[in-house]
Amino acid sequence: MKALVYGGPGLKALEERPKPEIQAPGDAVVRITRTTICGTDLHILKGDVPTCAPGRILGHEGVGVIEAVGAGVTAFRPGDRVLISCISSCGKCEYCRLSMYSHCTTGGWILGNQIDGTQAEYVRTPHADTSLYPIPAGADEEALVMLSDILPTGFECGVLNGKVAPGSSVAIVGSGPIGLAALLTAQFYTPARIIMVDLDPHRLAVARRFGASDVVNSKNGDAAKQVMALTDGRGVDTAIEAVGIPATFELCEDIIAPGGTIANVGVHGTKVDLHLEKLWSHNITITTGLVDTLSIPMLLKTVQSKGIDAARLITHRFKLDDILQAYETFSQASDTQALKVIIEA
Length: 345
What we know:
- By secondary structure, this protein is an alpha/beta fold.
- It has helices at about 40-45, 95, 130, 140-145, 150-160, 175-185, 200-210, 225-230, 245-255, 275-280, 295-305, 325-330, 335, and strands at about 1-10, 10-15, 30-35, 60-70, 80-85, 120-125, 130-135, 170-175, 195-200, 215, 235-240, 255-265, 285, 315-320, 340-345.
- It contains 13 helices and 15 strands.
- The strands form 3 sheets. Strands 3, 4, 5, 6, 7, 14 and 15 form a 7-stranded mixed β-sheet that branches. Strands 10-9-8-11-12-13 form a 6-stranded parallel β-sheet, sandwiched between helices.
- α5 (about 150-160) crosses α6 and α8 runs parallel beside α9.
């Protein structure tokens, strides 16, 4: 089968690989119909994720059709159309019982990280009964790819961890796909103000269309000053970091109001300074974490009822044979105006 293989920092190639086989009773082999590229994949290619070894097939998002199941799988059978969660969960270990599926002792974020992932014609998914979701008849498969990771991540790690509430003020630092996913799902809670911060005028314009009340271009280095002006010098109740670099996290520290919450979503490959000399007395909460994908069932219903239009995040489409071009397009988003790309296997 064809697969996109990580060759080490800065290296990737479309290669021929053996089709995966059932290895454990809870496994399923899924024929991928659509997948995508995540910002985390770019972090892997930068060398920011040391758990991902060279030779790994990348990708942790996608939809497809079950090809085979292990003897222990009871919820699915060959031919079923499924949504693949980016998190594999056994449902039984200590962390899964705490609903921290991202820390499952035999799962978590392993697809495209510690085991081969979804940017291929086929993928083996462990713990199929608790890590796959049936696709409703008539559902838009492209839109559902957004539910594998990006929408649950923006919602759980940004909106829920950030304690977004009715009437509150929110700043989302980074208007890329994850930031926009947080923007879309933050509106579930009707905050009074959602401020989007980014360097890219096009992405800020998209954020406006997606429901942002205000946008701040941080190109001139005065983003904190602009946000404080918009909030009458108070700062925001929730600051969501959706990039993963020191400058954006430090901006969140600069704009958070007393009693507020900084919700980190971005993948950080280098150290960030925590300015406790300014924040020690401010009653600040800082949250970190991987997505647990607890919200996939709710988001699936919301997308199906048209309460949220996940397909709005999709800007480009490619065939698997053209995945290297897809990576180039996705990684050069400031030039290509890419948000999420769909790759059809």
